[in-house]
Design goal:
With 335 residues, the chain is mostly helical. The chain has 17 helices and four strands.
């Protein structure tokens, strides 16, 4: 793209970002009055500061083996002794008192988080009555891990999600860091459910950019149905300016993807440009947010769902593994 075209795109994105956010309506809210979900919710962050011996820590991890093996990455240590010594040293560091106080300041007693999880899993039960509701454990780790999700257990490292102004924050770029606030905990969990192969069927032989766009698009669409009134910007991790710019310039983004023949490309460097984590998609414009291909995939899936509402329930949509079929049936043609 020549410099003058990039300049025009820059102005267009800048203009869109200066407009006010459109009023965002909730997605479909299912009738769940008769669905009762009891969340087994356990706050373990206080326990971390109550270890007075290494044996107590060993006993704790014996009761929470997934937390030990996956969340605290036991296999990264040469043996159990080194693992326990390192974790005991960390947990008894005076800085952990501050970390716990900050966690309490942001999350309180955890009741708000439990309520949001309950809403999400109640909606999940509406669409998937047979699904198992996982146990949820919260903990502070010293920035060890953020989320672990399986069919039976969700672990949340609350200290990862303390947000701006916290004394301790994950070591990552700002455009990624802004997704680590308390508002992102449950949406992020639902996105992990949405990308899981048990829910989201994909064709592993299809290596195209379009296949990735639709796979992620299905995950975001799924997560939105679990939390219908959470803003799109929270799920995708864009600022309000970025998401406004993406909405206002979808036709420009689409034209770029078509003209550059991106959809059926299988090259890794192309996927890195349009799918992977980046602060911006500079190929389109220096104000265009990263992961713009994921955003477009989400819009395609949303349009498909609208046009096939009578024949494609959410579980059926999530089982569709032909991205080209979804694209064609969506009739998605912005502008």
């Amino acid at each position: 793209m020549n410099k003058s075209a990039l300049a025009i795109l820059f102005v267009l994105f800048l203009f869109a970002q200066c407009t006010s956010d459109p009023t965002e309506e909730c997605a479909f809210q299912p009738e769940t009055a008769n669905i009762k979900v009891e969340i087994a919710f356990q706050s373990l962050e206080d326990s971390i500061l109550q270890f007075h011996s290494k044996k107590q820590l060993v006993d704790f991890f014996s009761r929470h083996t997934a937390m030990r093996d996956v969340f605290f990455n036991r296999s990264a240590y040469p043996d159990d002794s080194v693992f326990i010594n390192e974790l005991y040293r960390r947990f008894t560091n005076p800085a952990f008192d501050t970390l716990l106080m900050e966690t309490k300041r942001v999350f309180g007693d955890g009741s708000g988080l439990k309520k949001e999880f309950t809403q999400a899993f109640t909606n999940l039960k509406y669409y998937y009555p047979e699904i198992q509701i996982p146990k949820i454990e919260t903990v502070i780790t010293g920035m060890e891990s953020d989320l672990f999700v399986s069919d039976s257990l969700v672990i949340v490292g609350l200290d990862y999600f303390l947000g701006h102004g916290a004394k301790y924050q994950p070591n990552m770029y700002e455009y990624m860091l802004r997704r680590y606030t308390k508002e992102f905990v449950v949406p992020s969990t639902m996105l992990l459910y949405g990308i899981d192969g048990r829910i989201n069927t994909v064709n592993p032989q299809d290596k195209t950019v379009l296949a990735d766009m639709i796979a992620y698009g299905k995950a975001y669409y799924f997560a939105k149905q679990m939390l219908p009134c959470v803003p799109d910007s929270v799920f995708i991790g864009y600022t309000s300016k970025e998401i406004n710019g993406a909405r206002e310039n979808t036709d420009i983004i689409w034209k770029h993807l078509v003209e550059r023949e991106v959809f059926f490309n299988t090259a890794k460097n192309i996927k890195q440009k349009y799918i992977d984590e980046r602060p911006t998609t500079i190929e389109i414009g220096d104000q265009c947010p990263g992961r713009i291909g994921v955003w477009i995939g989400w819009q395609i899936v949303t349009e498909f769902a609208k046009k096939n509402a009578q024949s494609a329930s959410l579980p059926k949509l999530m089982k569709l593994s032909n991205p080209e079929q979804i694209l064609k049936s969506s009739k998605f043609r912005p502008g």
